[in-house]
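Before relying on records like the one below, remember that each one covers exactly one chain. Contacts with other chains, cofactors or solvent are not represented anywhere in the record.
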Amino acid sequence: QVQLVESGGGLVQPGGSLRLSCTASGSIFSTNVMGWYRQAPGEQRRLVAATAGGGSANYAGSVRGRFTISRDSAKNTVDLQMNSLKAEDTGVYYCNLKQRPPFWDSYWGQGTQVTVSS
């Protein structure tokens, strides 16, 4: 099993910044993808950013250029630096880890609330 623990959410004004952090523990394989998803009220959970490491990353179009995902594979951590935040970035952010291709077992953190409001 894999456990994911997030931190760093909160309330921020439009244009501000937040940094989310996630630490994974348990049975983690070397080949995995770690990422962040957002779920706004009444909406489905959607990908924000994900990375398999090695400098590659995938971003949702709405956050590209404002958010940066980074990971430390040795420590099994993934961070999301969020800049120039907008009201539409509000939601619960979930850390995710997928591993064991081709099955891609998926694990989720408990979520952390991000609210962008003046």
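The first strand starts at residue 2 and ends at 7.
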